[in-house]
Design a protein that fits this description.
It comes from Steroidobacter gossypii. This protein is of the alpha/beta class. The protein has helices at about 55-60, 65-70, 75-90, 100-115, 130-135, 165-185, and strands spanning about 5-10, 20-30, 35-45, 75, 95-100, 125-130.
């Protein structure tokens, strides 16, 4: 069964789930050869007892367009995450969670999946684009940032802090890296 790379980006109102909420999720399902199969997005209602982290709220105040985008057409988390699992299961292939940074995005997605759906189609694993860049570039982890990545890896796609835009952009980046990595074998 072929792997399907589910590039995912989340927007949140703080650093961890529970005390803070996932505001928006966007995912783009790519094949290894960079065919965009399908996308998913949802804006979520905040958790009942959660509060925005002051530093995150300050950052959001500087991003009015992205804030407005993630606060329209809100869904209860249990509804959004159930739709997300159904969407993933509708795609033929083995889903692989991909993000930049995966440590942050996967933390929220996994927590929300287990809390509201009781399962994760990704099991317990996620592929981190920055870690993959470290391997491909044969560099140190701290040097494997987007500003140090080759320009040829980037398509002309927006990074708007709208979850779906960022998921599409990061998925294309990952596929370009994967192609180059495999061509070096």
């Amino acid at each position: 069964m072929r792997e399907i790379y589910i590039s995912t980006d989340v927007e949140t109102d703080g650093p961890i789930p529970g005390p803070h909420s996932m505001l928006s999720i966007g995912s783009a399902a790519y094949t290894a050869d960079k065919v965009l199969l399908s996308t998913f997005s949802a804006n979520l209602e905040t958790l009942p007892d959660a509060r925005a982290h002051p530093k995150t709220a300050q950052w959001w105040a500087s991003q009015p367009e992205a804030w407005a985008a993630c606060r329209k057409d809100l869904e209860p988390p249990e509804q959004a995450m159930a739709r997300y699992v159904s969407w993933i299961k509708s795609i033929e292939g083995k889903p692989v969670f991909v993000a930049y940074p995966a440590g942050f995005d996967f933390l929220f997605v996994y927590w929300y999946l287990i809390r509201f759906v009781g399962e994760s189609p990704f099991s317990h694993s996620a592929l981190d684009i920055k870690s993959f860049a470290m391997a491909v570039l044969k560099s140190d982890f701290r040097h494997s940032t987007k500003r140090n990545m080759p320009k040829r890896w980037f398509d002309d796609l927006p990074h708007s802090h709208v979850a779906l835009d960022d998921a599409v952009e990061q998925g294309a980046l990952f596929c370009n890296m994967l192609r180059e990595s495999r061509s070096q074998r």
